[in-house]
Amino acid sequence: MISLGRINYGDVTRVWLRNYDVYKRLWRTEMIAPLFEPVFTVIGFGWGVGSLVAGKVMGVPYLTFVGAGLLAFTALLRALFECTYGSYFRMVYQSTFDAVLCTPVEVESLALAEISWGATKALLDGIFVLAILWIFGAVLSPYGLLIPLVLSLGALWVAALSLLVTARIRDINYYNFYMAFVFSYLWISGAYFPLDKLPKIVQYLAWIVPVTGTIDISRKLMIGKIEWMMLFELLYLIIVFAVTAELALRNLRRRMVS
């Protein structure tokens, strides 16, 4: 990747630490949604919707099935919001990006730090939701301990895609189109019901987006079902992240330098 040659990982760490320092001062308000939303969501889906589902879904209780979707989307949406509205505010309204780039930090290092920070916040939320699911008995296998690693990869891709969108838009209201796509996709990603219940063409469209693979791997780890297909899903996720991150780095350089 061409942009990787311009990255200074020491600078990436310093910019990441700058975002972490801000987070430490705001953590009380930042943690409100991650603390309360997962508990009520698990109760609503596990005991509410779950009570309406007769029997099991794909051989597991509905809470376990849907828990993987809730877990993945809670974490990935945190990366999305951090690298859309969060990055946009730092870039446009707060001029934080301009201040950082007045130092020897290159745009690519700044971009990778933003992506990494978005994935970090996603991982924090994901670990908390995973703990809630474990308490409610939705995690059926010790392999569930590996889920944060999968969520990290998925969050890196979502963060890179979101930063790419941020680098391209000139008006914050254009995020509405991006959000419409993301929240519409939620219903065909296999989060709430099995993909094989959908038409074949919709299934193919669902698998193109790596979020489906992230949910699928997380669900299999929750129930302890290890398959070779998981390796291909991970490989696809890594490749798509690398391509998306390269595009995000290039577009942010074009935005900040032009």
Describe the structure concisely for a colleague.
Helix content is 74%, strand content 0%.
Question: Would you kindly provide a written description of the structure presented here, covering whatever features stand out?
Answer:
By secondary structure, this protein is mostly helical. It has one domain (2-257). 74% of the residues lie in helices and 0% in strands. It has ten helices and no strands. It has helices at residues 9-30, 32-48, 62-93, 96-101, 107-135, 147-168, 175-185, 200-208, 210-223, 229-257. Helix 2 (32-48) crosses helix 5 (107-135) and helix 6 (147-168) runs parallel beside helix 10. The chain is globular and about 60 Å long. The relative contact order is 0.15.
**Count of separate DSSP helical elements:** 10
**Overall tally of domains:** 1
Strand % is under 5%
Report the end-to-end length measured between terminal Cα atoms. 21 Å
Count of extended strands = 0
Main sheet properties: none
Rounded to an integer in angstroms, the radius of gyration calculated over CA atoms is 19 Å
Which percent bin holds the helix content? over 70%
Give the helix/strand class.
mainly alpha
Query: Could you spell the SSE succession in H and E letters?
Result: HHHHHHHHHH
Low-confidence segments, ≥5 residues, pLDDT <50? none
Globally, the shape reads globular
Mean pLDDT: 88
